[in-house]
Specification:
Layout lengths: L2 H16 L7 H14 L2 H12 L4 H13 L3 H4 L13 H11 L6 H12 L4 H6 L7
Helix pairs in contact: 1-4, 1-6, 1-7, 3-4, 6-7
Length: about 140
């Protein structure tokens, strides 16, 4: 997960999971999370795993993960790869999400609102070219 930006990924991945045909398999998702863990400090990875395994409601989990990721320096955040479905977004949108991920001042809710604003800038042609279920 990547800074507050990773919280948005969780939202996108939830939308993907709810789609008729998943855009990413469980094996791909597991491989992605392992690649993220390799670039995180061990204590951060453990803290995020603890939150993920908790019985907290999804929104509370997302807020806690956001708080954890907000503490990481940009040098680590920049090493965290986009989840595979996010790589299907246009480069300009990916760049905007990178900038969003570096904004440590945003709360989870503010970050989600900003992510929605970014996605709203997709042209109709860009939206149509994306797989069903990628966007909420």
């Amino acid at each position: 997960m990547r800074s507050n930006f990773r919280i948005f990924y969780a939202m996108v991945l939830t939308a993907i999971a709810m789609a008729e045909k998943p855009l990413i398999t469980q094996a791909e998702m597991k491989a992605y999370f392992e690649s993220v863990k390799r670039v995180l400090p061990p204590a951060t990875a453990q803290e995020l795993e603890s939150v993920a395994r908790s019985r907290l409601p999804p929104l509370v989990k997302a807020e806690k993960a956001n708080d954890i990721m907000n503490k990481l320096p940009d040098s680590i955040l920049d090493k965290i790869p986009f989840p595979p479905p996010m790589l299907r977004l246009p480069q300009r949108i990916q760049n905007q999400f990178r900038v969003l991920g570096r904004n440590h001042a945003l709360t989870f809710q503010q970050r989600a609102q900003e992510a929605e604003r970014i996605l709203a800038t997709l042209t109709p042609q860009e939206r149509a070219s994306l797989p069903k279920g990628l966007l909420p």
